[in-house]
Amino acid sequence: MFPKIRMRRIRDNERLRKLSLETTLGVNDLILPLFIIDGKNEAQNIPSMPGVQRITVDLIEKFLDKTRVPAVLLFGVPGPEKKSSLPSAAFDDTGLIPRAIHTVKQVRPDIAIITDICLCAYTDHGHCGIVDAGSVDNDKTLPLLSKMALTHARAGADMVAPSAMMDGQVAAIRKVLDSHNFTETAIMSYAAKFASSFYGPFRDAAKSAPSSGDRSSYQLPAGNRQEAIRDALLDESEGADWLMVKPAMLYLDVIQELRQKTHLPIAAYQVSGEYAMIKFASNSGALDERKVVMESLISIKRAGANAIITYYAKEAAQWLSS
Ligand code: PBG
Questions:
Q1: Confidence class of residue 175 from pLDDT cuts 50, 70 and 90?
Q2: What is the set of domains in the chain, with CATH numbers?
Q3: Lesser CB count within 10 Å: N end or C end of the chain?
Q4: Ligand 1 neighbour 116 (Cβ under 6 A)
Q5: Rounded to the nearest 5°, which phi and psi values hold at 148?
Q6: Is 82 a catalytic residue?
């Protein structure tokens, strides 16, 4: 006779249950994305992402007041007058993101600052790089991404996060940062970024939808896990300090496999469409928002992520503290 496995011995004993949890979620696992706009005292709602706003730099202090979220990921959303084909607003030392960095450092020096490095919100055509003869020119884009990263490093960013998916972007940025003595500025690479329809609400939020074509020439096809791992390991060899998988919930297998192939920390991005899915379903009463969010975040950690970028970061931090 085999001894009966009695899970209840553990489950019905609160002390043993806690001791037996394999995966836990903590406040320090969370990264909050912030959309920054020009102007004063303005918070704009985003219809496809209820509860998320674009805010002006002067509202950052109020927005981060008392939150225990340990890190923010900053996105600049410049007005249409700032967009161009060679987007100088992306590397202006007095631009949106440098000002936002200064403010965060001043009002919350305890919060780590990560900045998105991509041209899509700054180009008039909305592509992530320089467009030449109708297509994105990888190699012409690299110096601009490097310049943007340098601008953010100079302003005080702790980590820059290149998301344009140009080949060689991590190496190019590392080289420029090092040659300007920003050897301590880290790089989080959007290493495995799939061409996903779940970025839809973000493109409203960041006003960065491409005016023609899509991003399938530089983002990964949904079915290609091996290519994703290859890309991520290449970024590691180019000098990335963190690797990111994005989106998160539909790509847990990619997180899991990458966890086994790298010793770098992994971030997973619970993207705008994942947020919208939970938010709208919760608003309609179909899902219990708090429970569903916590389950989704634990699942992402279980797959192997060390940190999660999520629009729910502030709420989750509060729920975890209460
Ligand atoms: C910029 C970028 C995108 C996201 C993060 N950085 C959009 C895109 O690639 O189209 C999406 C994030 C989200 O959906 O929350 N390239």
A1: very high
A2: 22-321 (3.20.20.70)
A3: N
A4: yes
A5: -65, -45
A6: no
Residue position matching structure tokens 């009966």: 4
Using one digit for the tens of pLDDT, what is the confidence trace for 94-114? Answer: 999 999 999 999 999 999 999
User: Is 175 a catalytic site residue?
Assistant: no
Burial grade of 1 (CB within 10 A; 0-12, 13-18, 19 or more):
exposed
**Whose alpha carbon is nearest atom 11 of ligand 1?**
199
Distance CA 117, CA 72 (A): 14
Ligand 1 pocket residue status of 125, Cβ below 6 Å = no
Single out the catalytic residue among 82, 83, 193, 301. Answer: 193
pLDDT at 3 over 80: no
Question: Which of 263, 227, 268 minimizes the C-alpha distance to 30?
Answer: 268
Tell me the H-state helices in 33-74: 60-64
DSSP state of 161: E
To the nearest 10°, report the CA torsion of 45, 47, 50, 56: -20
Token pair of 34 as six digits: 């912030």
